[in-house]
Amino acid sequence: MQTQNRLLDEIAGIALKALGRIDKLGSPFQKIKELCDLPEKINALEKEIETLSQKIDSAEKSN
Questions:
Q1: Helix-, strand-, coil-residue percentages of the chain, each rounded to 5
Q2: What residues make up the domain containing 42?
Q3: Which of 33, 47, 38, 43 is nearest to 19 (CA)?
């Protein structure tokens, strides 16, 4: 259970970090550039979340 909570905290931290980066955008051109990069960043986050989910599953199976 601790492993699951730790991994969920890690996922939440990743999401908050991504949202913080969106808030820090400056000029409209910078915002456009960052928004264009979002799909790639979202894909990376999805892969990381999948990896963490697999770790949670394996930790639960070993307990």
A1: 90, 0, 10
A2: 2-62
A3: 38
Q: How confident is the model at residue 31 (pLDDT cuts 50, 70, 90)?
A: confident
What does pTM read for this prediction? 0.48
Q: How far apart are CA 18 and CA 42, in angstroms?
A: 9
Mean pLDDT along residues 21-42: 76
What Rg, from alpha-carbon coordinates, does the chain have? 15
Q: How many structural domains comprise the chain?
A: 1
Q: Tell me the C-alpha to C-alpha distance, in Å, between residue 18 and each of 1, 43, 57, 60.
A: 26, 12, 25, 28
Our CA angle for 22, 26, 27, nearest 5°, is 125
